[in-house]
Amino acid sequence: MHISEGVIAAPILVAGVAGAVAGCAIGLKKMDLENTPKVAVLSSAFFVASLIHVPIGPTSVHLVLNGLVGILLGWISFPAVLVALLLQAVLFQFGGITTLGVNTVVMAVPALACYLLYARFVRSRNNGVAAIAGFLAGVTGILLAGMIVALFLMFTGEQFIAVAKLFIIVHVPVMVIEGILTAFIVMFVRRIKPEVLGGIA
Amino acid sequence: MKNIRVVVLIVIMAPLLVAHRVNIFALVGGDSIVCQCYYNDGAPVHNQKIEVFRTSGEKLLEGQTDDAGYFRFAPGVKDDLKIVLYAGMGHKAETIIKASGLPEVKKPRVEKASISQKAVEVVPEKTGLDEEELRRIVGEVVEEKFSSLRGLIIREQRSTSLTAIIGGIGYIFGIFGLLLYFRKKRQS
After folding, report:
1. Nearest residue in A to B19, CA atom
2. For all residues of chain B together, what is the average pLDDT?
3. SS3 state at B37
4. Rounded to whole angstroms, how far apart are CA atoms A200 and B10?
5. Helix or strand (DSSP H, E) at B107
6. Considering the entire predicted model, what is its pTM?
7. Residue B99 binned pLDDT confidence (cut-offs 50, 70, 90)
8. Is there a contact between B13 and A33 if contact means CB atoms under 8 Å apart?
């Protein structure tokens, strides 16, 4: 899901940088002393998630965790994702420095969307509602990331519908796994440390 | 029938979609250059486009990787070559072969290359066991020996080492730690 260097034209790269910078500016404003350690932990979780490949059949998949990052961090997902992607680019040549902005947008915008859509429900007093919201956040994170990649690639001449369709078909198992995992983590956090979610309403 | 087609499509495309990085690894063996293309989980990049450029930026030739992710070509020129692999979905990789690593170009080959403007077939014409034939046999043997070595190098390259992962986590904590430090300092 990382877009390599030299694939996307300069204007879109610049737009990606602008989006990432704007998101990070808002995110950093919202980040205070208390939640900085939480941001660091989630940033490293996101960093590691895409490095560990789990073989499934003829291919291998990995977790993305941007839905989880989103519901826990909201706008602060932007700086958290940016730092993780920067290190993935420098240490493993995933993506690249010039595509850092675009890739941050690909990952952090869905995270923010998950926050806006599901954070309320994750804090719900009803356990079932919270679990379902967690599951949906995991699914939506990957789904939207795929849509945004397809959108960016549309400018390189690939067909949006074709790329998006293929992406969804291939990622269904990952979405389900990620959804279940996110739901479990949400339930765990609710029991152990509900204040991380902003308290249970 | 349609289901089978979808399944086949998924199996073929899956590594391409989940991979982060495509790699191209090129080695000069005899008169030809062998490129091996693979995703970072080790799956071969099959049936994807490859283009080869000269120093001048002029496209020398283009082709497709085979089922095992290999692409072979005889450059036919002595020049720095840039080999670019396009794997779709935003994935691209390139490598450079220096002119100094290429074999000297023999006269007839140059003519052939300049006439057709594309790759000279790797398999030379059958003319009995002359120098050409010998060259091919030796090349094949060397290639055979090389392939295991190449596999080793590739395995080495593609493994995301645990040390680097742990190092990355350390960097992240360091970055946020610094941020915390400076903010706290400003506040007090």
Report:
1. A1
2. 73
3. strand
4. 41
5. helix B107-116
6. 0.69
7. confident
8. no
Classified by CATH at the fold level, domain A10-197 comes out as Arp2/3 complex 21 kDa subunit ARPC3 (1.10.1760)
Phi and psi for B50 in degrees, rounded to 5? -130, 135
B124 vs chain A: nearest CA distance in angstroms? 36
B2-163 adopts what CATH topology?
A: Immunoglobulin-like (2.60.40)
- 3-state SS, A69-116, equals HHHHHHHHHHHHHHHHHHHHHHHHCCCCCCCHHHHHHHHHHHHHHHHH
Q: Contacts of residue A163 in chain B, CB cutoff 8 Å?
A: 89
pLDDT in tens, B100-146: 777 776 554 444 444 444 555 555 555 556 777 888 788 778 777 77
Is A23 in contact with A15 (CB distance < 8 Å)? no
Name which of A49, A56, A11 is nearest A142 in CA terms: A49
Name the residue ranges covered by the structural domains of chain B: 2-163
Which pair of structure tokens corresponds to residue B182? 């400076």
